[in-house]
Structure formats: structure tokens, C-alpha cells
Amino acid sequence: MSDNERFGPGAYLTPEEAKEFHKIFMSSFIGFTSIAIVAHALVWFWRPWF
Fold this sequence. Notes:
Layout: H1 15-46
């Protein structure tokens, strides 16, 4: 398999590029989710909505 081989129609990333993208995407998603959880907890302590 060559380095330039792509998998499936419309696949524009090599497997290595896809792994790198996935790593960045997951770290960004976890960071965003963590911030959202903290923000919701702070608002809950300030003004509970239940």
C-alpha cells in the first residue's frame, strides 16, 4: 500500500492524516464538553432550574 492511497469514494485523507484529524477532533470535543459541564454546574449553583 502506498502512502497516497485513499480509502473509499470521497476519502481525501490518508489513514495517517485521518488518525491525526481524529486525535485533534477528540481532544477539542473533550475540552468543549468539559467547559460546558463546568458552565452548567456554575449556572446550576447560581440559579437551579428544577
